[in-house]
Design a protein that fits this description.
Shape: elongated
Number of helices: 5
Distance between the termini: 89 Å
Strand content: 25-35%
Largest sheet: 6 strands, antiparallel
Helix content: 40-55%
Oligomer: single chain
């Protein structure tokens, strides 16, 4: 058989096999407008002051510490410390190492503390309606507490849960 012809047939076979391969885990890219849609809800029969108070209550009930508020801008910023626990293998290694280091390895912290930052923006749409946008960011810190990396959280179920809590907080604040 001609070597050139065999190379061409091998290339065609590989191309056909590659075309038949599955694409694997396909992810739809998250667009800024899609993220904004997930982060935003409108509430009827609520004024901006009541929505701000309910958002502050919701964040505090969720373990956030309110850092800044600006009633003119309708802005609330809160932070929450998040502890990342190590994997089971790393914890087991630490306990095994304790026997060889006379327990001194126990002084080395394995947990990492990160921050979760929530910013809530309340905007009056018209008389008796508001639009609320909640944006979450995970802030990863190094061992000295300095900012190492930030990432925006875009998961729909997280925001769905937050808006459900905000709705409950609005209901409680209106009942008072």
């Amino acid at each position: 058989m001609n070597p050139r012809l065999s190379r061409i047939s091998i290339a065609i076979t590989l191309a056909l096999l590659a075309g038949c391969a599955t694409a694997g885990d396909l992810r739809v890219p998250v667009t800024p407008m899609g993220v904004r849609e997930v982060q935003t809800r409108s509430f009827e029969n609520v004024d901006a002051h009541t929505a701000m108070k309910a958002a502050i209550d919701m964040l505090q009930d969720g373990g956030f510490t309110i850092e800044r508020t600006d009633a003119d801008l309708g802005l609330i910023v809160g932070r929450q410390a998040v502890i990342r626990r190590p994997s089971g293998g790393l914890r087991a290694l630490k306990y095994v190492g304790a026997a060889f280091s006379y327990g001194l390895i126990g002084l080395i912290p394995l947990n990492k503390t990160d921050e979760l930052e929530a910013s809530v923006n309340v905007t009056s749409i018209d008389e008796g309606s508001v639009r609320v946008r909640i944006a979450l960011q995970r802030r990863m810190l190094d061992k000295n507490g300095r900012l190492k990396k930030t990432e925006a959280l875009t998961s729909g179920p997280v925001y769905q849960d937050l808006f459900e809590l905000l709705g409950r907080s609005l209901f409680v604040s209106e009942a008072q």
